[in-house]
Amino acid sequence: MTASLRLEIQPAEYRARREHLARALQQHGYDLMCVFGPTRVAYLTGFFFAATERPVAAIITDDGECSLLIPQLESDHVRQQCPELVNFAVYPEYPGGGSGQHPLLTLAAHLRTIRPSARALAADLDGYEHRWGYRGPKLSQVIDVPLHERLDLIDDARTIKSSAEIALIREACAWGDHAHRLMQDAITQGSDELLVSHGASLQATRDMLSALGDRYVPKAREGLPANAMFIRGHNTANPHGLHQQGGVQVGDTLVTGAYGVVGGYESELERTMFVGEPTSEQIKYFQAMLEAQDAGFAALKPGRRCSEVEQEVRDLLKERGMLAQARHHTGHAFGMEGHEHPFLDLDDHTELAAGMIFSIEPGLYVPGLGGFRHSDTLLVTPDGAERLSLYPRDLESLLIGRA
Predict the structure, then answer these.
(1) What whole-number distance in Å separates Cα of residue 397 and Cα of residue 172?
(2) How many CA atoms lie within 13 A of 263 on its CB side?
(3) Taking all residues of the chain, what is their mean pLDDT, rounded to a whole number?
(4) I need a labelling partner for 398 at 20 to 30 A (CA). Which of 93, 127, 357, 391 fits?
(5) What pLDDT, in 10s, does the model give residues 340-351?
């Protein structure tokens, strides 16, 4: 199996990302940048890891050199994933493993070694994230040069997906669609939300691994490569409602979610479905939601601003007299994470550009009746947008157990 056939980003693209960041550091007068966010570390290096209380950081200099701060337990792991990286600052354990030295002090010493005359540093965060009981000093407290928080230097670059990233997301969409189909076909009156959701996810994962074989490269130790879930009934009026006990009943509104994960990149698919014959009220809100999503599709074009897309969707809902039932913005970018910058929101004025990936997911939420939301993965193209999630959207295709 050649590396080019494996469904993952190749080393040359990681190098190009670091070179792009190095040019930005030069432009802004920073000698180097410390990157703590696990997704940003993976984006720049290809090192995917289980983030715990043990700090990991990528250090990128203004000439593009890369080194890593890692705990001893990750030494072999990083070499397996990133054989081209050779420079490491290794600490024994958190909070010190008997060394008497906090990992952030190890990092500070490493920074002085690679840039002893540094004038200014950038970082995505001023120190490691407080997760799993981690406690530690800020990075600015252990170095003696000015530190500037500039996560935008990485996250702005992440907004435009490369052809390789788009290919991975396109593949992820196909498996999210497949997981949703398995789940929809398995739902009957009395079905349990959790059992059907997990059963469909597991079967979709089996199908995915069988079809892709050695091309599939896992990038996480938790979760499944293909996933689907749903919530039901009046609970769907909560945009992020939790699962509840009890079985599916005739008359229920179902709001679903499904996605695939390929090469560390995600897709997004959500649908509103009905059990049995929907009522006139259910149909009314479903059709209005569908029109709002169509408006979002049409508005997503290069040169427009995120806020303009949101405004067009809101204008349509206002015309329908349903703006009060909309509880969130129209969508968000995503890729390596389920939500990424920028957002289709009235206060996000980021200009859209070809290569961006967005969800379009306007929702209507009616207490006592239910929630109504479709979500699709869209790629901004040079002249508009392309829908990558291809699951049916129409009412007739989303009815369960109809007599």
Answers:
(1) 22
(2) 23
(3) 96
(4) 357
(5) 999 999 999 999
Region at 263 (left for phi over 0; alpha for psi -120 to 50; beta for the rest)? left
Identify whether residues 85 and 171 lie together within a single domain: no
Residue 298, CA atoms < 13 Å, CB-side half-sphere: 10
Q: Which amino acid is at 260?
A: G
Domain tally for the chain? 2
| Same domain for 234 and 366 | yes
Answer with the one of 142, 158, 174 that is the final residue of a domain.
158
Query: Are 107 and 239 within one domain?
Result: no
Q: What is the pLDDT of residues 274-290, one digit of tens each?
A: 999 999 999 999 999 99
Secondary structure (3-state) at 207 = helix
Q: What share of residues in the chain are helix, strand, coil (percent, to 5)?
A: 40, 20, 40
Q: Cα 399–289–396 angle (5° rounding)?
A: 20
Is 46 found in the same domain as 188?
no
d(CA 152, CA 340): 12
Quick one: 135 and 221 in the same domain? no
59 alpha-carbon distance from chain centroid: 23
Verify that 131 and 172 share a domain, yes or no.
no
Q: Do 214 and 238 lie in a common domain?
A: yes
What SS3 state is found at 332? strand
Q: State the Cα–Cα distance between residues 323 and 314, nearest whole angstrom.
A: 7
- Regarding beta strands 340-344 and 331-333, do their DSSP bridges make them parallel or antiparallel, or are they unpaired? antiparallel
Which of 99, 131, 158 is at the close of a domain?
A: 158
* Pairing status of strand 88-91 against strand 66-71: parallel
pTM beyond 0.70: yes
Q: What is the CATH number of the domain that holds 143?
A: 3.40.350.10
Exposed, middle or buried: residue 239 (CB in 10 Å: 0-12, 13-18, 19+)?
middle
pLDDT in tens, 14-64: 999 999 999 999 999 999 999 999 999 999 999 999 999 999 999 999 999
CA angle 348, 41, 211 (to 5 degrees): 90
Based on the fold, state whether residues 10 and 138 are members of the same structural domain.
Answer: yes
- Does the pLDDT of residue 1 top 60, yes or no? no
* Tokens coding 74: 């990750």
CATH of the domain at 220: 3.90.230.10
pLDDT value at 402 more than 80 = no
Per-residue pLDDT at 246:
87
Phi-psi region of 213 (alpha: psi -120 to 50; beta: other; left: phi over 0): left
Report d(CA 235, CA 232) in Å as an integer.
6
